TrEMBL record:
It comes from the Bacteria. Residues 10-108 form the HTH araC/xylS-type domain. This is AraC family transcriptional regulator. Keywords: DNA-binding, Transcription, Transcription regulation. PROSITE patterns: HTH_ARAC_FAMILY_1, HTH_ARAC_FAMILY_2. It comes from Aliisedimentitalea scapharcae. Transmembrane segments: none annotated. InterPro entries: AraC_E-bd, GyrI-like, Homeodomain-like_sf, HTH_AraC, HTH_AraC-typ_CS, Reg_factor_effector_dom_sf, SmbC-like.
Length: 277
């Protein structure tokens, strides 16, 4: 695929992320791509592994899942804000994807988030192990802003890997989170979306980051990405205070063990890695 096709896919993915309640029909996305709808669908499918309709549905519902857990807006408003015409159609689509109604998902998700009244040991439990992590060389795209919106950079990264045939040189997908969202304004949060790279050089348009490796605490979280915030509370609130370990002066990073495009949200597996001294 030529760079112009890659640019069109990146433009459309960004448009979907920025306009979840907008007109995301095939015709309109073809217009955003400046390409005939008869060919655009095939180009998008080749470069992303999904049809336009599949991508729109997944990204809208992911945004909804995050809002359900982290915000207070009513469910019917969330339905409108992610482009569903009514609460019934949204609830049906959400339950099919996440295995629970939006209301039940919100209740369960909030139970895993930080609560100032919780004490050590009261946070939800997740398995944590110690291991010697290898040094990793990552390539990807920087992201600034809410961590829950890093998916926008991941979508672009995946499309670039596909168009440039980088997947044979890639290891697992990974992200690095440089700031504490409790101390840094959401708009200023810094992160990096990409994956382990085993090729030569740095592909054009992508950036490199290196993880030193070494002694690492690894929490294994299974479930939708919207619940990862609660898993961090478990790592810091349950495991760390009683572990006898001390974090190194290095950011946490995440390794993604499967792909949200072909894995149900409840079956997603994420390794949250805390470098240790």
């Amino acid at each position: 695929m030529t760079t112009s096709y890659e640019d069109r896919v990146l433009r459309v993915l960004a448009y979907i992320h920025d306009n979840p309640a907008g007109d995301l029909s095939l015709d309109n996305l073809a217009d955003v791509a400046a390409m005939s709808r008869f060919h655009w669908h095939r180009v998008f499918r080749v470069l992303t592994g999904e049809t336009c309709a599949q991508a729109v549905r997944r990204l809208r519902l992911h945004r909804a899942a995050s809002w359900l857990v982290t915000g207070d807006r009513p469910v019917d408003r969330i339905a409108r804000d992610v482009g569903y015409p009514n609460l019934k159609s949204f609830a049906r689509a959400f339950a099919e994807a996440y295995g629970a109604s939006p209301t039940a998902f919100r209740k369960a998700g909030r139970a895993t988030l930080a609560n100032p009244t919780l004490k050590i040991g009261d946070y939800p439990m997740h398995p944590v192990s110690l291991r010697n992590e290898p040094a990793r060389r990552l390539i990807g795209l920087p992201h600034t802003g809410a961590y829950m919106e890093i998916g926008k950079s991941f979508e672009a990264f995946g499309a670039m890997c596909e168009s440039r045939q980088l997947w044979p040189h890639m290891g697992p997908a990974a992200a690095v989170y440089y700031d504490n969202p409790e101390c840094v304004a959401e708009a200023e949060l810094r992160s990096f979306a990409g994956g382990e790279y085993r090729g030569e050089g740095i592909p054009q348009g992508l950036e490199e980051r290196r993880l030193e490796g070494g002694k690492t605490a690894v929490l294994t979280y299974k479930g939708p990405y919207s619940g990862i915030s609660g898993a961090y509370q478990s790592l810091y609130g349950n495991w760390l205070p009683t572990s006898g370990e001390e974090p190194a002066d290095a950011p946490c990073f995440e390794i993604y063990m499967n792909n949200p495009r072909d894995t149900a949200p409840e079956d997603l597996v994420t390794e949250i890695c805390m470098p240790l001294k």
